[in-house]
Amino acid sequence: MPQGKPEVVPDDGLTTRQRRNQPITAVHTGPGKGKSTAAFGMALRAWNQGWPIGVFQFVKSAKWKVGEENALKVLGASGEGGSVTWHKMGEGWSWVQRDLESSEEAAKEGWEQVKRDLAAESYRLYVLDEFTYPMKWGWVDVAEVVQVLGDRPGNQHVVITGRYAPEALLEVADLVTEMTKVKHPMDAGRKGQRGIEW
Known about the structure:
With about 200 residues, the chain is of the alpha/beta class.
């Protein structure tokens, strides 16, 4: 296993092992492709460790078939690694807002479920996919998200994806990755394709 060396060792009274085992809040944001894909990669690692995983997809159609969903559900049911529970909330696409009232209510209920699961320590890894949009649109209170994540019990890791991550969330996150677009097939008029986008 790679043994990275931290640039700074804080004077916090914790051992290296205690510091290593602290829960992580990760944010994958920015205009580039790969935010959700990177989060699902983390879910694969968590599955391999035998951790229970909760995936919460915000502002995605329940009809949309995500390749990672099928793969992770099969792995979760295999009995080999951790369990996988998948929740879909909202209607339509995050960038094509349809039936906003229904999407807003679904996103709010999704956040309420995340809060219940965090309080109950239901999962070891939470993937809150495209959760930045309900915060950007004012459907979910950013200050509440920051507080809930900061107060969560146990050793629960949370990864949040989506563009426009609020500054308050970035400040409290342990890991922030900004995906930037250098080039994309859509720039040349090519639509997403099977096996690449889904």
